[in-house]
Give the backbone structure.
Amino acid sequence: MTLIHDNFLLTTTKAKELYQSIKDTPIYDFHCHLSPQEIYEDKNYATITDLWLGHDHYKWRLMRAYGIDEALITGDGDSFDKFAAFIDMLPKTIMNPMYHWCYLELARYFDHYEGVQHSNVRELYQKLNKQLQQPDMSPRNLLRKSNVQVVCTTDDPCDDLYYHQQLAADPSFDIEVRPTFRPDFYISLKQKTIGTAIQKLQAASGFDINSLSDYVKALENRVDYFNEHGAKSADQSFSEVVLTGLSEEAAAAYFTDLKNGKALDNRKTRELAGWLLARLAQSYKKYGWVMQLHLGPLRNNNSLQYEKIGTDAGFDSLGNLLNAEELNQLLDHLHQNGSLTNTIIYPHNANDHSMVQAAAGNFTSKDVKVQLGAAWWYNDTKDGMIQHLIDYANIGLLSEFAGMLTDSRSLVSYSRHEYFRRILCQLLGSLVEKGEIEDDPALLEGILKDICFNNAARLFKIENIKEVH
């Protein structure tokens, strides 16, 4: 039997039944890093190396651990040599999620089920490249093949959203591709970055920015622009929870100090960021957007490699800086000021899952949903997903979970949704067979479809996206 088969990861009769009931449920990808330009232009990838290895820091980290030269990872090495180096490593990634992800991708998109160690690497490279030139392997058709209904990209607030506009105006393409407002750079202001932030906002908004008040108006203008072009969410990432309680006068003074070249210490930086986030949250609330908070990563830790390669190259790691009191204070501040909108919180460290879910429960009501987000980055392993689901259910309502996200730059990474769904069905199916959950097929199928699609559809409220039954 090949590694990938109909009952992959499903070991009980009930798990297999549950998976069959939801395997064709479409995908609502409410957080990813796909390129709207690539989707719009719809050009087939030249090589499997471009598609598979071009933007994937998950793979890059493993390749470094295997001792592969950087020239064959992020450097200017030959395309085939990069692929060959990765294929040599792949069979040895056992117990890392990359092992399952890659074999799922090979099976679902290329109909290749054989272990790569049994293939001639040159012939495999040529076979995959030939398949990539087929019409059904263009970016748009890869999305269709994946049964995706919604893609929410991650976009700089100053982006003109040209490719989103072109996609929205194209009647031949019926998958919703929506922008997401990503203001990290404009919220966590620093001495070295504020000048660039101001310049970009001035150019995008047309406003002169001489004060904090001007700066906020320019940001709000960009929120308005994103809303006009279909955005339903704002996504922001911080290594520590931003701080609340700063007065407008103090925030204005901090902004002026930065603008004049004076550095702020870490606490003042977090206070100013908290003040700015609270102001932006008013606009998120006004438009009914979902606020997504990715919390805890420590970024760009390898200084030499950061200087050579730049960001998002595989040198970010787990943090341990989240503080329960500060998170509750942030949510409470937004709630008190009427600006708490539907919110998803993704802690980078799995040790914070229960803490975040407990904090979320303090502010969830009929009117506003605050919840723990999917197992994210270092947690999206088989064991990590299982533990995340258990943590979520132990403290909240698993049936209300908004489900999996892709958080990827690769158009073939949608197999991760299948991976998640199989793990979810295996977990619930085993509990049914143990007698811990009532065997009610209609109820369980409804809960699974809610987790896999409907809860996100209800939360993000794209008008023409209907729930599945």
User: Anything to note?
Assistant: The chain has a mean pLDDT of 96.
